[in-house]
Amino acid sequence: MATKRRRQRTLLQTALRGGAAGMVGGLAITLVEREVLARVMGGARHRSTWDDLAARGLSRVGVELGDRGKIATGVVSQVAYAGVLGAAYAVLREEARDSRAGRIVLDGALTYAASLVFPDRPQPVRRRKRLALRRKLAAPVNPADVFMRVTAMTFGALSR
Questions:
Q1: Helix (H, G, I), strand (E, B), or coil: what is residue 74?
Q2: 159 three-class SS
Q3: DSSP one-letter string for 76-114
Q4: How far is residue 134 from each of residues 16, 144, 145, measured CA to CA in Å?
Q5: Are 126 and 43 within 8 A, CB to CB?
Q6: 135/139 Cα distance (integer angstroms)
Q7: Would you say 87 and 15 are in contact if contact means Cβ atoms under 8 Å apart?
Q8: How far apart are the C-alpha atoms of 68 and 81, rounded to whole Å?
Q9: What does the pLDDT look like over 13-57, one tens digit per residue?
Q10: How far apart are CA 58 and CA 73, in angstroms?
Q11: Least confident of 67-81, 120-134, 138-152
Q12: Which residues contact 4 (CB under 8 A, 6 or more apart)?
């Protein structure tokens, strides 16, 4: 029986792969949250409360933003946060490679951390009977869980 030797990767390589996977996950969830779910639920483009939070942080420094600037700041900061989460996930995942319980706890921690930055779902602008079915279809979508799954799958693909 031949044993597979796993390539030894440096911490930096693992963190960069994880950061890239996190950014892919962040872009996916940003697209799902802001475009797909917003359109399915009958509203226009979704402006997250995270956008206001990021814009408030910039206004403390002296940079005032309009509506589009707030959305752009929110998207950029979400993707950057997702990259940092992905890098941390990758490094910890490599450490917990042999522990199934460790991987499960790590996946839960990633979902929780993602829920801090991707917490809200779009609210419909219009209220009609047709929208009730759309809301029912979109209700089971958890943006933080989508982020965790996309990041884990992308990291797995990048690690091969």
A1: helix
A2: coil
A3: HHHHHHHHHHHHHHHHHHHHTTT-HHHHHHHHHHHHHHH
A4: 38, 20, 20
A5: yes
A6: 6
A7: yes
A8: 20
A9: 999 999 999 999 888 888 877 777 666 666 555 667 778 888 888
A10: 9
A11: 120-134
A12: none
DSSP at 150: H
User: Are the C-beta atoms of 154 and 21 separated by less than 8 Å?
Assistant: yes
Of 23-37, 113-127, 138-152, the range with the lowest mean pLDDT is: 113-127
- Residue type at position 157: A
Terminal-residue alpha carbon distance, the chain: 22
* Other C-beta atoms lying within 10 Å of the C-beta of residue 26: 27
Residue 21: how many CB atoms within 10 A of its CB?
Answer: 28
Q: What is the pLDDT of residues 77-94, one digit of tens each?
A: 889 999 999 999 899 888
Number of alpha carbons in the 13 Å side-chain half-sphere of residue 49: 9
| Joined tokens for residue 118 | 């991707």
